[in-house]
Amino acid sequence: MFDLLDRPLFYLPVKWPGVVPGDDGGATLTEHMVEIQVELLDREEFNAWMIEGSKDVEDMTAEERQAHELTTIKGVAKGWRKIKANGRNPDFSDENIAKLLGFPGFVSAFGEAYMNAWNAKIEIRSGNSEGSPANGQADGPTGATSKAATPRKPRTAKN
After folding, report:
1. For the whole model, what pTM was predicted?
2. Where are the domains of the chain?
């Protein structure tokens, strides 16, 4: 049963491209990934969060901008996992969150991942990533062809 008052926390995978030092001293492309524990806000809270988060930061000092970013992300993010620093999982503290926010590409990747989750477009790993059936057709569960997919009979002119 669906409980309108229940607001569970769940881990949302956030992925973004980056570079790391290669063996030869050059840059190697990589994909960073961390799982952020988030709470999905209701519509009114979500709208308020979006308005607050979209404030113009151009006129803010560096300290004000950092405080704004921390407040915005902590409005929905409550923890993390699959993140390592010096071989351990760092605390979900303001200082560590600020370091993560400093990674190029993280902020937009987090925003996109949260928006997709809020719109129920969560990563498609669980059910739809299995690919097409062996015969290549994306049939329904019964294998029956839907009416929309059946060829139409040509129309004849009526007198």
Report:
1. 0.67
2. 9-123
